[in-house]
Specification:
2 domains; 36% strand
Length: 208
């Protein structure tokens, strides 16, 4: 199990820069300046959340579209921004993404970069779950709370025990009919079913 990673997105929109693979970027090219400025902003936000630098994961992407198109697709933006040597690769990546998403691409059409976006994510570690205590042969008896006549979907009526799930250890097998109760849920075990308590507390239900 992995907890949700803290994410701090930043973007610079409205750039609307047509990508010409044969033309070198201008000295004050806004794409290049954004490529170098926005990761710094992402780092500052993660630093502000007291996240160690070793756990920073910062990605810079370009949102690109065909000239006149009403939506953009995301492709990675090289670390150096757009250069004469990598423009063709960025354009090819956009065509490939468009084809993957929509089944076609306009390889000869002009494309424009509309947004530079930074996604700053904190790396998170897997949660270490504690194994459940090992069950014993008398767990079902210890978990018994009370029983009550219960009518099931097939119309049959059975005296059905209510069991406290917190008292069922790993490896315990409960035979239906039974209703297993815990503070946040209830598990109905009809006649002909068994529930096996697993190592970390999940239950596996199966028919007998």
């Amino acid at each position: 199990m992995r907890p949700a990673a803290p994410t701090r997105p930043l973007s610079r929109s409205g750039i609307r820069r047509t990508i010409d693979p044969c033309r070198a970027p201008e000295r004050n090219d806004p794409v290049r300046s954004c490529r170098h400025e926005t990761p710094t902003g992402g780092k500052k936000r993660l630093d502000g959340d007291n996240i160690d630098a070793a756990d920073h994961d910062i990605k810079v992407i370009a949102e690109i579209r065909y000239h006149g198109q009403g939506f953009e697709l995301r492709v990675p933006l090289p670390a150096e921004g757009l250069t004469l040597s990598n423009k063709a690769d960025v354009i090819a990546a956009f065509h490939a993404q468009h084809k993957a998403d929509y089944g076609y691409a306009f390889d000869d059409a002009l494309v424009e970069l509309y947004t530079v976006r930074v996604i700053a994510v904190a790396k998170v570690r897997h949660l270490q779950l504690k194994p459940l205590f090992k069950g014993g042969p008398d767990d079902v008896g210890k978990a018994f709370m009370y029983d009550r006549a219960t009518i099931f979907d097939d119309g049959s009526r059975h005296i059905t025990p209510r069991l406290d799930r917190n008292k069922l250890g790993a490896g315990t097998v409960v035979s239906g009919p039974a209703i297993i109760i815990q503070h946040n849920s209830t598990t109905l075990l009809p006649p002909g079913y068994t529930a096996e308590v697993l190592k970390y507390g999940s239950m596996r239900l199966s028919t007998t």
